[in-house]
Automatic annotation (TrEMBL):
Name listed for the protein in its UniProt record: APC family permease
Main location: membrane
Transmembrane segments: 73-106, 133-154, 166-185, 197-219, 239-260, 281-301, 340-367, 388-410, 416-436, 457-478, 484-502, 637-656
Any GO MF annotation of the entry: transmembrane transporter activity
């Protein structure tokens, strides 16, 4: 005898062995082309990065900073006239010293806190909730500005090589952000392949340019920049104004430090041994950045680059034309403006500046996931996408960066004023947190000889780092506050306040949902209600589902907005002979929700605390425009009914023919199976 009577649903056995791999659901064709095939969770180890691929992923921001940090330094000094350029070597030396201290400090942080929380975890663990949230907010703001500044700087270099594109500045910037988002959504491993070559070409070409320029200078043939001939009107400045300009130049030069913190946030993405590989990558990044920054600054001075905030301040310069970037002028002076190497440097610089945004696309989602895990951000930020990346964080970052580029018109000089505040807030609080960490370790005692030496070294390094970064933060705040940095001081507290609010919301919800001594279960009945609009196959399918669930009582309900339609349906229902009673509810004001809710409440009052399950038939369509042709009443009713106590809602799908193209495949009926059975309706 067939154990499955005619019309009964056949359900596959739920018993699945642990070794069975379930095939991934195929994404839509467009998504598959753009992002690639889904990656299984157990393949995550294959996505971890070796050092040579981690360097371009996490260090592109810091390495690319050398393309605009010297430019910003020179530009600020020239505001006070050419004489102030004499301070450039001393300022650059201070930036280099600071960079060395910060790199050494973050090596200690990586060793002590390798989980990927970086400065946020350090501050929250050692300084408390408020400092931790402030650091997180500062880092999130900094990551958004990293994308905006990097892309704007890259577009600047493209325009330097192709001036005709100047009117397309904003459009180019937005297009590049979209491309970077798509590449990162494909996964860390594929992004490392895409970004490795441009980063290494940039490092190699700029290093070759520095060495060539310095060798030419040593041989008595120093390169001469095209702007060396332009004079600048020297204003009369008081001593206080000169000091302020020097401090502003130093704070702009400190933009070379941005991105150093990204490695500490990305430790989980490294191959084992994670800590050692992350520390090695950080050291390589710092060494390369120091060499390129110092070399490019030296060549800018040797070749006589004059770069003004307002090009019209350069006497004799056609200020209607775009001003070539500092690195473009140095490359032209070293290799020749029409040479192949000049275009190689420009192309590599533009690429690495654009790809520097990739550092943020690794740091922001990882930090967002940590914040979501701790309850300070929406839980969706801790969800990995098809390619095992935190795709929601990447999309949020891309959208925020595009908004900033639109508001600033992708002007680098505007964006860079906002840029460095957030990173030094996190630097300072992170280093202070590390000082407290090492002091606590020393107070606790029980350390071996090597551990004691390591803790003392860490305390010394992080102590110096905390002192220097605090001073720089004060300088940066004073010199940049009136130039737009005040916006960052508004954004960081606002974001921190929102994160604390999210944390309290999750805490309250958790408390509300926790099982306690007053929690009781049990009901006095189980009633099913099938909503009937017209006599159609979807209604029969919903009835079949309700009957198969074996409720204590099953009823059909029709909300009558038209009496003739209601009478016609009643006659059809009697002819069906299903044995299920049909209740007709009058609706003089043509609403569906209120009559149904009153009916359910009256039913529960009569029968006690019954569980009521409402079955709502719903069309499933395959084309977006079909949704405009259906009233979607089931969804709206479901939203209303979910607010009624004791009610569960079951949406019963009916697949229209067009829905079979949703995933690019057509479901064919089994032998002997008709369209009605495929949709789940069974004649009775």
């Amino acid at each position: 005898m067939d154990p499955h009577p005619a019309g009964a649903a056949r359900v596959a056995s739920p018993h699945v062995t642990h070794n069975t791999r379930v095939a991934a659901e195929q994404p839509p064709a467009v998504k598959r082309i753009l992002l690639g095939e889904p990656i299984a969770s157990d393949e995550g180890a294959e996505q971890l990065l070796p050092k040579h691929r981690a360097l371009p992923i996490f260090a592109s921001d810091a390495l690319s900073s050398v393309a605009y940090a010297p430019q910003e330094l020179v530009m600020i000094l020239m505001t006070g006239g050419l004489a102030l350029l004499a301070f450039t070597p001393a300022i650059a030396a201070m930036v280099v010293v600071l960079l060395i201290v910060v790199v050494l400090s973050y090596r200690q942080l990586i060793r002590a806190y390798p989980s990927g929380g970086g400065d946020y975890e350090v501050a929250r663990t050692n300084l408390g909730e408020i400092p931790g949230v402030v650091v997180a907010a500062a880092l999130l703001v900094d990551y958004v500005l990293t994308v905006a500044v990097s892309v704007a700087s890259g577009v600047d270099n493209i325009i330097s090589a192709v001036p005709e594109l100047v009117s397309w500045r904003v459009e180019l910037a937005i297009a590049f952000v979209v491309i970077i988002v798509l590449v990162n959504l494909r996964g860390v491993r594929e992004a490392s392949f895409a970004f490795a070559v441009p980063t290494y070409v940039f490092v190699g070409s700029v290093a070759l340019m520095v060495v060539t320029g310095l060798v030419r200078t040593a041989l008595g043939d120093a390169p001469v920049a095209s702007s060396a001939q332009y004079a600048v009107e020297t204003p009369e400045l008081a001593q206080a104004a000169v000091i302020l300009l020097i401090l502003r130049a130093f704070s702009s030069g400190c933009s070379a430090l941005t991105g150093v913190e990204a490695v500490s946030n990305g430790v989980p993405a490294f191959r084992r041994p994670k800590v050692r590989n992350a520390q090695t990558t950080l050291t390589l990044m710092g060494s390369i950045a120091i060499f390129l920054f110092a070399g490019l600054t030296a060549l800018a001075l040797v070749s006589g680059v004059h770069y003004a905030e307002n090009p019209c301040d350069l006497a004799g310069f056609d200020c209607t034309a775009p001003q070539p970037s500092l690195i473009a002028q140095v490359a032209a002076a070293t290799f020749g403006s029409g040479s192949v190497l000049f275009y190689v440097v420009q192309a590599a610089t533009a690429c690495v500046l654009l790809l520097a945004a990739n550092t943020a696309f690794n740091g922001f989602p990882l930090l967002g996931a940590v914040l979501a895990k701790d309850g300070y951000a929406p839980k969706s930020l801790n969800t990995r996408g098809d390619r095992l990346v935190f795709s929601n964080g990447m999309l949020i970052l891309g959208g925020a960066a595009i908004l900033v580029l639109l508001l600033s018109r992708a002007q680098l000089s505007t964006l860079v004023q906002l840029y460095i505040i957030g990173v030094f807030v996190s630097f300072t609080l992170g280093q202070i947190g590390m000082v407290r960490h090492w002091r606590r370790r020393l107070r606790e005692g029980g350390l071996g000889r090597d551990e004691l030496r390591s803790a003392r070294w860490g305390l010394a390094v992080n102590g110096v780092g905390a002192g220097l970064t605090t001073v720089v933060l004060i300088v940066v705040t004073i010199t940049k506050f009136t130039h737009g940095a005040y916006l960052v001081f508004i954004a960081i507290p606002l974001l921190a306040f929102l994160m604390i609010g999210v944390r309290r919301y999750y805490r309250d919800v958790e408390h509300e949902l926790a099982v306690d001594g007053t929690t009781r279960f049990g009901s006095s009945g189980d009633v099913a209600i099938v909503l009937v609009s017209r006599m159609q196959k979807p209604v029969l399918k919903a009835i079949d589902y309700a009957v198969a669930a074996h409720h204590t009582e099953t009823r059909a309900v029709h909300v009558a907005v038209d009496r003739d339609d209601a009478d016609r349906l009643a006659a059809q229902w009697r002819a069906l002979g299903s044995g299920i009673p049909l209740d007709v509810l009058d609706s003089p004001y043509r609403t569906y929700g209120e009559p149904l809710i009153r009916y359910i409440e009256a039913l529960r009052d009569e029968r006690g605390p019954s569980v009521v399950t409402v079955y709502l038939p719903q069309y499933i369509v395959g084309h977006w425009w079909e949704t405009l042709l259906h009233n979607r009443r089931a969804r709206r009713l479901a939203s209303r009914l979910m607010l009624v106590h004791g009610v569960a809602v079951t949406l019963v799908p009916w697949l229209l023919d067009s829905s079979e193209v949703i995933y690019g495949r057509r479901s064919r009926p089994l032998p002997g199976q008709d369209r009605t059975e495929r949709s789940g309706a069974v004649a009775r």
